[in-house]
Amino acid sequence: AQSVTQLGSHVSVSEGALVLLRCNYSSSVPPYLFWYVQYPNQGLQLLLKYTTGATLVKGINGFEAEFKKSETSFHLTKPSAHMSDAAEYFCAVRKNTGFQKLVFGTGTRLLVSP
Amino acid sequence: GAVVSQHPSRVICKSGTSVKIECRSLDFQATTMFWYRQFPKKSLMLMATSNEGSKATYEQGVEKDKFLINHASLTLSTLTVTSAHPEDSSFYICSASKLAGGAPYNEQFFGPGTRLTVL
Fold this sequence. Notes:
Chain A is mainly beta and 114 residues long. Helix content of chain A is 0%, strand content 53%.
């Protein structure tokens, strides 16, 4: 079965600082991996995804993530935080075959201070 | 493209009443729709998956008779919380995908969510 662990329920950074949100996964088969962002009282928006191919994937709003199979990780980074990046971020995993059920991590709230 | 809407965005109801939440794909046909429940400061928990014209598949622990899901058309799915109680208060989010469930990959597009409060 697939599972996702997000380390740190809250991450605080200053505006302009590096953003690093951690995600480790467990999967018995090669996974598809996703990062979603959720703003208050809104649904989820896809930031980026890894399916196959290049392990460094770039997403919207300057975010990127690197799939590291040896570390079973898919950490999300952004070189320079912006105030508008403050939100809840969810990592998710699903099997790359068969049914498309997503399994979400518990989320990390990113706080950005001036 | 790929916009999903939910209605209502917020609903408050009395204990014992039923509430219907609609999920619509506005600019695409959704062969599969998903319903999630999100508790405060918690992750999204998949409740059920519905394919157009078929009965929904519920996740373990989700009461089928309490959370009725209908996916009568390719653009509309509804979740009805029957005989709602305060413990049903939560944020309900739907998502929709364009291709059938067996496809190797297709993106889920999420609605904005519905905040249900049961008094």
